[in-house]
From TrEMBL:
It comes from Gordonibacter pamelaeae 7-10-1-b. It holds the Pfam family Amidohydro_1. GO terms for molecular function: hydrolase activity, acting on carbon-nitrogen (but not peptide) bonds. It comes from the Bacteria. This is Cytosine deaminase and related metal-dependent hydrolases. The keyword Ubl conjugation does not apply. CDD domains: ATZ_TRZ_like. Keywords: Hydrolase. SUPFAM superfamilies: Composite domain of metallo-dependent hydrolases (SSF51338), Metallo-dependent hydrolases (SSF51556). Residues 55-404 form the Amidohydrolase-related domain.
């Protein structure tokens, strides 16, 4: 595809007007002020009229539980522990592998609709989740979740052999679109012995870790009581978990000492502003993290605690709520927020060649229609995108150079069937709980 005469947010997220962007073999092969000449232009195939459009790096959802589309609207108005113990875990116990497949496929459709090309997913039924992602055309870092309450070697848990098999089958599959991460759900759902073993395996294999940390005040403070004053991240560091590339979701109650540790270890903090607000968990100290140099990325969390995969909604919250909570209107700039949703999210997944509109990078792109009333006047399209834009402004989403959503159509997904399957399966599970 050749995007013609289109405005873009470049690799620095600065506006460049009237550009031509050529996509070939999954990459951005051309970026210039004029159309490529003659036969070169024809080699790109379709010419996409960019007038009235804005081309931006697509979004990378740094923390998700995709199959939880089944629970959308189910567990409401509850704090985290009651939400988990009384509603979510009993529901999940009734979910079949095929339930996970259809729920993940619906999540992929929803994410593609809103400009997301890749997500980091923590859940169960990895075979079925991988199948859904591959069919959708999206990318994902997938980890198999298990709760490690019993202090025993990781090798004695069924998930040890299972994840090793997932790595063998799927890591790097679909031309690198699928990556397998390891998972520790949280400090309060695990034990030191097993966590040490998992960290050693991850380090040996050169893979990545995905975990929850300091999501609620009670989780944070109870960890300190259990581990001689260590916060969850300090505890994980003490047993070697943070010696591997790690994405820590939430970090809502992290302390200044945690920020220094995250910078030292290169930990990515995946902010989930909508989910944290909805569950009454608080606000991650994102301005202080950014000031300290922490790698901040952005996630939606699951659909039982956010209710939608519209990353532009989370982007808006990330850029706005800290101005109110700190009383400082200068914190978390639109550019910082958009970087968290794009390039930093890609880096949190180990996707070094993604997340920027730059020649040579993977063609992970979103096109927004900027002719709507909320975009006028276009004094600063970056600011418009963050504060006035909507996920519904996305008209095309491209993953690795392949269109995964365009003007209401999903090339890899029968979205009507996915919707119907999820409706039916949710009703069945609720009847069984």
């Amino acid at each position: 595809m050749l995007f013609a005469d289109i405005d873009i947010l470049d690799e620095n997220l600065d506006l460049q007007t009237h550009r031509w962007v050529g996509v070939r073999d999954g990459h951005i092969a051309y970026l210039g002020k004029q159309a490529p000449a003659g036969a070169e232009a024809e080699a790109y195939g379709e010419v996409y009229d960019g007038r009235g459009k804005l081309l931006v790096p697509a979004f990378y959802n740094a923390h998700a539980h995709a199959p939880m589309t089944l629970l959308r609207g189910y567990a409401e108005n509850l704090p985290l522990q009651a939400w988990l113990n009384d509603m979510v875990w009993p529901f999940e116990a009734k979910m079949t592998p095929e339930d996970n497949y259809w729920a993940t496929l619906l999540a992929c459709a929803e994410m593609a609709r809103y400009g997301v090309v890749s997500f980091s997913d923590m859940y169960y039924a990895t075979d079925e989740r991988v199948r859904a992602v591959v069919e959708s055309g999206l990318k994902a870092n997938i980890c198999e979740s298990e709760l490690y309450f019993e202090p025993k070697p990781f090798a004695d848990y069924a998930s040890c052999a299972a994840v090793e098999e997932y790595v063998r089958k799927y890591h790097g599959a679909a031309d690198g679109r699928i990556l397998i991460d390891y998972n520790i759900h949280a400090e309060y759902t695990s034990n030191p012995q097993t966590c040490k073993d998992i960290a050693a395996v991850v380090k040996e294999k050169g893979l990545r870790m995905h975990l929850h940390a300091s999501e609620t005040k009670s989780e944070h403070e109870e960890c300190k009581q259990r581990h001689d004053g260590l916060t969850p991240l300090q505890y994980f560091a003490s047993i070697g978990v943070l010696d591997v590339p790690t994405t820590a979701a939430h970090c809502t109650w992290c302390e200044p000492a945690d920020f220094d540790l995250m910078v030292e270890k290169g930990v990515f903090a995946a902010a989930n502003p909508a989910s944290n607000m909805k569950l009454g968990s608080g606000y991650a100290p994102i301005p202080a993290m950014l000031e300290a140099g922490v790698n901040v990325c952005l996630g939606t969390d699951g659909m039982a605690s956010n209710n939608n995969h519209d990353m532009m909604q989370d982007l808006y919250l990330l850029a706005l709520l800290y101005k109110g909570s700190t009383g400082d209107p200068s914190v978390v700039t639109p550019k910082q927020a958009l970087a968290a949703a794009t390039r930093m999210g890609a880096l949190s997944q180990g996707r070094e060649d993604c997340g920027l509109v730059r020649a040579g990078m993977k063609a992970d792109l979103a096109v927004l229609d900027v002719t709507g009333p909320s975009w006028a006047p276009r004094t600063n399209p970056l600011v418009n995108m963050v504060y006035a834009g909507h996920g519904s402004d996305v008209v095309l989403t491209m993953s690795d150079g392949a269109v995964v959503y365009r003007d209401g159509a999903y090339p890899g997904i029968d979205v009507e069937r996915a919707k119907a399957e999820v409706e039916t399966r949710t009703k069945r599970i609720i009847s069984e709980v």
